[in-house]
């Protein structure tokens, strides 16, 4: 999930489709949302900050911020190494993607060779350059997406189109050998793409699962929603349902959902609301958002936004009148997506992998979900990994946990009427 950057709020202006409604009138409408205590807040500039915060949460970014500096590229024969400015990302060992030139360039960055705290630089191996000229790169962004497409992993695949609201959404289809009756539908997170899910395709294939790596509304590949806003899972699950229906129409008999970050929230909604939910055999969720109120409060704190302002921003997202300020076509029901409070309602076996060092989606709600529903939820903590980068830090452990857990879930179900074997 992309971060909510620490930037100054832009002036809030009357939108072209507001019918000439003044900003003062909009604040008056907003005052009706929260009552007396919020009315006092609206009298200050904090109200503009609340609007800005709410809109940042649900508005897709047009371009990722190139917030990682690359200082030099060193060539030694066929070997390449890159010097990066030390950051919270570059100083964690593992394998990562580095995107540069506005996303046109993509390199796979490997282990840390050396780290100089005094100079604040890190020297790392360059394992591959898939596109672009890394020697000219100066800035870019760090990513958990290591490979650009299935072919880069050595996997044959098909580009397929899934019918969704307002058009068709592209997906990568990686077929398992033989006739796979179980398909894995993989759902990336907020601000990411289907590249994020490539890390799970190998384990899925080992288990005999055909993988469908999907796109969904507002991710830059699928058609945008009519309001151009994220629903935080409350709307996107319909695109996942469409992907499930595509799988069922093409030979699948049951589904395993994989979800990262907001993709986890989307999967949880699909398992709760989809008409195909009875065919979802299991879910594997990496750093999922299980409680948006917790995540939004965390980001308000990260951005030094007063807690009252952050809570008012949440109120705007969920109240029908708030959509006049946020641009949402319908309010987002954060309570319905609070799976910590709804823990006992989750009836799909779920594996949650989440780093205790996750800086964007706190791991606490994931652990609490498992604690409140141990029958259905298995929680596996990771360490050191930043958001959705558990695989990048320890791919062997990530894959072994997923495969072992899914083997249990996908084992043939015992016939309840069968006689138990006689004891010797």
TrEMBL record:
Database matches in Pfam families: Abhydrolase_6
Q: Which InterPro entries match?
A: AB_hydrolase_1, AB_hydrolase_fold
In terms of SUPFAM superfamilies, this protein maps to: alpha/beta-Hydrolases
Domain AB hydrolase-1: residue ranges: 185-379
Name this protein carries in UniProt: Pimeloyl-ACP methyl ester carboxylesterase
Q: Which UniProt keywords apply?
A: Membrane, Transmembrane, Transmembrane helix
Q: Molecular function (GO) terms listed?
A: catalytic activity
Origin species, per record, is Pseudarthrobacter oxydans
Which superkingdom heads the taxonomic lineage of this protein's source? Bacteria
Give the transmembrane ranges: 27-54
